[in-house]
């Protein structure tokens, strides 16, 4: 099964609203590996690896976000070095 990698920056009201936890739980549910973290500019950054279908479903969920969030935009970069993460984690 071919794995793909995506790096995404999520902008809007995405800090202080449970966005990292939402991203983490969604990734676990879908079987993705990678990480998520807050950025100093108020955005959230995440990297995920999985099948194309898993990644696309995850991105669709991120566009919606948790109820208290307001996603204004996603910057998506596909590809890159597959690091073969062994799990999905929240980074600080």
Description:
Helix content is 27%, strand content 38%. The protein has 92 residues and is of the alpha+beta class. The chain has a single domain, classed as Alpha-Beta Plaits (2-Layer Sandwich), CATH 3.30.70.100. Helix 1 (19-30) packs antiparallel against helix 2 (52-64). The radius of gyration is 12 Å and the shape is globular. The N and C termini lie far apart (31 Å).
State the share of residues found in helices, binned by percent: 25-40%
Overall morphology = globular
Major sheet summary line = 5 strands, mixed
Distance between the termini: 31 Å
Please give the domain count.
Answer: 1
Largest sheet strand order: 4-1-3-2-5
What is the radius of gyration computed over CA atoms, rounded to a whole number of angstroms? 12 Å
CATH architect. name = 2-Layer Sandwich
The average pLDDT is 95
| Beta-strand content estimate | 35-45%
What is the number of helices? 2
Number of strands: 5
The level 1 CATH classification is Alpha Beta
List the helices and strands and how they pair.
Blueprint: E1 4-13, H1 19-30, E2 33-38, E3 44-50, H2 52-64, E4 70-78, E5 88-90
Parallel strand pairs: 2-5
Antiparallel strand pairs: 1-3, 1-4, 2-3
């Amino acid at each position: 099964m071919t794995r793909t990698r995506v790096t995404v920056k999520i902008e809007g009201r995405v800090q202080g609203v449970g966005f990292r936890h939402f991203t983490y739980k969604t990734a676990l549910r879908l079987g993705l590996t990678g990480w998520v973290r807050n950025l100093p500019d108020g955005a959230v950054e995440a990297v995920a690896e999985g099948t194309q279908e898993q990644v696309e479903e995850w991105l669709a969920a991120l566009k919606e976000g948790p109820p208290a969030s307001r996603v204004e935009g996603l910057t998506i970069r596909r590809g890159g070095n597959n690091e073969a993460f062994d799990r999905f984690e929240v980074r600080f």
